[in-house]
Amino acid sequence: MARSAQFTRRLDRIGLTRDVRRIVYAYVAAIALFAIGDVVHPGFARLDSIAAILTVASFVGIVAAGQTFVVLIGGIDLSVPWVLNGAAILMVTTSLGDDGRAAYALLLTLGMGAVAGMANGFVIAFLGVPAVVMTLAMNGIMEGLTLGLSGGMTCGSCASYAPPIIQSAVHGSLFGIPTAIILWVIIIAAVSVVLSLTTFGRKAYAIGNNVQASYLAGINVRLVTVLLYGISGLFAALAGILLVGFGGQASLGMGDPYLFQSIAAVVIGGVYMLGGRGHYLGTAAGAVTLVALVSVLLAMNMPDYGRNIIYGLVILVLLLLYGREEKED
Amino acid sequence: MSTDSTAQRRKTSAFTYFLGQNVGLVLALVMLVMAVILYCAVYWIEQQTLPGNFEITSTVNNTMPLVLAAVGQAFVVLTRGLDLSVGGIMDLSNALAAVYIHDSLASMVGWSLLILLISTILGLVNGLLVGVGRLQPILVTLATLSIYQGIAIRVLPQPGGAIPPVYTSVLVNPYQPYALGYLLLVAFVWYAFRRSFIGVSIFAIGNDEQAAMANGINVVRARVTAFTLSGLMSGTAGLFLAATATAGDATTGNGFTLSSIVAVVLGGMNLFGGRGSGVGVIAGAFVTTMIVNILFFSNIDPLYQSFYEGLFLVIAVVLGTLISRLLRRRS
């Protein structure tokens, strides 16, 4: 015990603090999974297969970006599934598969996501409703609105395809790299800059660490909360647009897997659920780890139930590893 | 509390003081009464008669699984946690019941007890990971939810199996509202729990963990017990769910994770721990079911159902917070 404490202290001194170490673990886990995958299924770590996995991971990663922001202030966003699903359906029904309407539909959909998120933030910040309750209710509200307005996906325009320009943008590639991955890298860079280098990012960390102290230090806690939930809604809507561009059409229930996956990515990425600690760089690695894990299990022809069980076990093991470090401090 | 406010409190009536202390419970009961009146009204408009024995029986029977799941959730919420694995344990208990319970008395009693034991152990696993492993409740139960659901699907890959009619008529009699008896039993169990040593410990750690520890309460044991009780209640809820549906499905329990949280919140329980009552939670579960019934009889497009449920949840919680603030200021 004493020796390992000494060891961690030495790591701290060379800049590998606990928070940095957690991010490193997430990347090590991702790389290890690719190595394991290549052993059980030769060709798993080929470039095109890695690109395919990263593309799928980018959707999870983008949703998880929003989730990271709200988790940093000790919140959680359970409204992700139907904000995403509603966005996907709004995208096809307003654009009607027409390139000319694509820009308008894009702005409208992103705006819808941001408004839904900001409504979450507003009720949480100003009316004191717990985040779990508010975002859960918002998920129901969005579900009811989406189902009701689209007549349960029976409306004439519901079967429309995403505009070709968006489809080709998601499927295309630049210098041999799929655009979805490029977009994700840009988002990773942007979110990292916001978190680490702007006052807005530092305010988010401050609120997550201590709301009272942040308020006394002159931070407009309520405004930042509203904005952060707005960003989360925005990212969920963006993921909906990308998914509908990727798959061509929208469907009911397409957002459901993203709640569990976005939270799991945040956890694997070493973001502290009570807020104030962690970084999107970790979450991004968490998303890759998660999708790589699913792909490995699929490659091993693991049935559904086995995947569920291993999914849960991996998260538990990581939690226990992180928890162990916590106690050493 | 300063002497000033103590003097002030003596002036206000005992009734106002009671309201201030139990505002969640009172609001939940008021909501329930309002929901019942509204339900009778829309039912009268549609059918020109008041709801009878059949409606009461089916409402009670359909709400029993949620009541049990919500009370289980309540134990964990008291400790300032959330149990997301409620749905997973219900799935597993439901699937096991559909596959293994057969017509003989020995099979029914034996397997029911075994299923409850398994559910309790699953809850204990959650509790040990949270209490001894010192992990976040939400994260642990998110992971175990996935694991328990996986096992449930392994037990019953496709919806099916069968529950003996005798079993159904004992748990949720389709002709008479005998299930009300179980409701009283749940309320009594809560009453006993509230006054037991472990109950007091769980309330205490929810209110102030440091203070509870300083007063010699075994925090780890209280926390593990809360999760274990939640597992037991979720398992019971799964059995009732199987009995109501007369068949098993390893996925029907999923929705109960979230609806149990809704029922707990509508029941006036504080998500930040240490406050709440079992009767309130039971009322909250019934309000949740009544809303669906009211929407059905007022001819609202069922596609909009979640919209109204979500909206109602927000409004109820916001109003509850405002009223309790008002009452606390006065008392």
What does this entry show, briefly?
The complex is a heterodimer of chains A (about 325) and B (about 325). By secondary structure, chain A is mainly α. Chain A is about 75% helix and about 0% strand.
Structure report:
The complex is a heterodimer of chains A (329) and B (331). The model of chain A has no long low-confidence stretch (mean pLDDT 84). The longest helix of chain A is centred in the C-terminal third of the chain and has 27 residues, at 221-247. Chain A is built from 14 helices and two strands. The N and C termini of chain A lie close together (11 Å). The radius of gyration of chain A is 20 Å and the shape is globular. Chain A has helices spanning 2-13, 18-40, 47-72, 80-95, 102-127, 131-149, 164-171, 179-197, 199-209, 211-216, 221-247, 257-268, 280-299, 304-328, and strands at residues 173-174, 177-178. A two-stranded antiparallel sheet of chain A has the order 1-2. In chain A, helix 3 (47-72) crosses helix 13 and helix 7 (164-171) packs across helix 11. Chain B is an all-alpha fold and 331 residues long. Chain B has one domain: ABC transporter involved in vitamin B12 uptake, BtuC (Orthogonal Bundle), CATH 1.10.3470. The longest helix of chain B has 27 residues, at 105-131. Chain B starts with a helix and ends with a helix. The mean pLDDT of chain B is 86. The interface between A and B is large, with 46 and 43 residues.
